[in-house]
Amino acid sequence: MKIMPDVVVIGGGAAGMMAGISASRCGQKVLIIEQNKMLGRKMRITGKGRCNVTNIASTDEMMQFIPKNNRFLFSAFKNFDNNDLIQMLEDEGVKLKTERGGRVFPQSDKAVDIVNGLRSILAKCKVTVLIGDKVTEVLTENGQVTGVKTDKGRTVLTKKVIICTGGKSYPLTGSDGSGYALAKSLGHNITPIKPALIPLETAENWVTELQGLSLKNVAVTLEKASGKKVYEDFGEMIFTHFGISGPVVLSASCHINDNEKYIFSIDLKPALDEKQLEDRVLRDFKENMNKNFENALSGLFPQKLIPVIVKLSGIDNYKKVNVITKEERKKLCYITKNLRLTIIGTIPIEEAIVTDGGVQVKEINPSTMESKIVKGLFFAGEVIDIVAYTGGYNLQIAFSTGYLAGKSGKE
Predict the structure, then answer these.
(1) pLDDT truncated to tens, each residue of the chain (411 aa)?
(2) Helix runs in 33-107, H state only
(3) Which of 105, 157, 173, 399 can pair with 41 through a Cys bridge, CB separation 3.0 to 4.6 Å?
């Protein structure tokens, strides 16, 4: 391959494709080097194959959903925000729709439509793509980027390199952590890597009885064993064979540290305070006064949850509801408002949606995404030490940082 690019983009995911588009539109000759056999491989499986591409939240609102290093992103969002992304995709003919929580998806519910839209723009921008090569070294001289080497023996000379290799989650999609090694070899420090947006394992055996049960409109709280609250949310979750998952759980996982213990509490009836809930229970019991306890709860809980609630309440499931004591009712109400789970860990990082950790932001210029250590070296996307909750925010970070890195540094 004979090419003398102005810019080499390492990685053809969300950040890499956007960096290529942005750089090309600024008049730079771009080469994207992607080790996979296709562009946007991880994007194709995000959002269960639907691709939650962004969120319609304002920038100020979006910052509230980015718990780590959000201030670093001000310039990136100012240069290219969610409205710019939506406009770019719709101009390319990719129809979008907005769902609950401001989450934006392709109207077709097919992630590949987002990828194909970006590929189409790359083609119109005449961006060259090299598929199947892995960059093994970024060349420098006197603190300035001079080129890259690949595992196929290619050497490409350039004065600008953008590392968009992703994190370490879903390594089969190419996010194998190789970008951290490249950055480290060039003098950058890497914040320790851990999984983020990941299901949680619980100690309680009864969760296996609830596998597949989805709870909507519940309020959840994550607190340390000491009692200190670290996160609270409202929304949807699901029980699994090993613990819990779903949007509110994934976001809560961003606050989990391996060396601490946590309690995850679920309020099954957040719309009712304790008095209102007790009145509701009394009303239901009155309507079912001749029934056994276990048969009088269908108005309060999903059927699959009832045996677990009965067991945790300590009330005999065959006890008639008209003889249940006030203390027993209070215990039932307490469990309903405080269904507690002991968190014992997360599933492996390879199954995380995103990675927490990465190239330290203090070593990157937030106005350009350029390294403060090596001239001509830029970073974008998940390789940087930033993490956001679920809802399209992480992809928007990738697009915004990729866009800024692409347009910056043009001589």
Answers:
(1) 556 899 999 999 999 999 999 999 999 999 999 999 999 998 998 888 899 999 999 999 999 999 999 999 999 999 999 999 999 999 999 999 999 999 999 999 999 999 999 999 999 999 999 999 999 999 999 999 999 999 999 999 999 999 999 988 766 666 788 999 999 999 999 999 988 899 999 999 999 999 999 999 999 999 998 899 999 999 999 999 999 999 999 999 999 987 789 999 999 999 999 999 999 999 999 999 889 999 999 999 999 999 999 999 999 999 998 999 999 999 999 999 999 999 998 888 778 888 899 999 999 999 999 999 999 999 999 999 999 999 999 999 999 999 999 999 875
(2) 46-49, 59-63, 74-79, 82-91
(3) 173
DSSP secondary structure string for all residues of 139-161: EEETTEEEEEEETTS-EEE-S-E
Distance from first CA to last CA of the chain, Å, rounded?
Answer: 25
- Six token digits for residue 97: 């729709």
How far apart CA 366 and CA 135 sit, in angstroms, is 25
Q: Are 117 and 94 in contact (CB under 8 A)?
A: yes
How far, in Å, CA of 19 to CA of 164, rounded? 8
How open is the CA angle 105-107-110, to the nearest 5 degrees?
75
What is the token pair recorded at 297? 């709860």
pTM to 2 decimal places: 0.90
Q: Which residue has the tokens 């992607």?
A: 34
Residue range(s) occupied by CATH 3.50.50.60 in the chain:
7-195+355-407
CA dist 273 to 137, 154, 287, Å? 60, 66, 21
The CA-based angle 33-164-30, given to 5 degrees, is 45
Tokens found for residue 83: 């409205």
Name the token pair of 144. 């300035």
Sheet holding 96-99, edge to edge: 54-55, 103-106, 96-99
Specify the residue for token string 């952590």.
177
CATH of domain 7-195+355-407: 3.50.50.60
Query: If DSSP codes are grouped into helix, strand and coil, which group holds residue 5?
Result: coil
Q: Report the SS3 class of residue 83.
A: helix
Are 96 and 90 within 8 A, CB to CB? yes
CB 2 within 8 A of CB 387: no
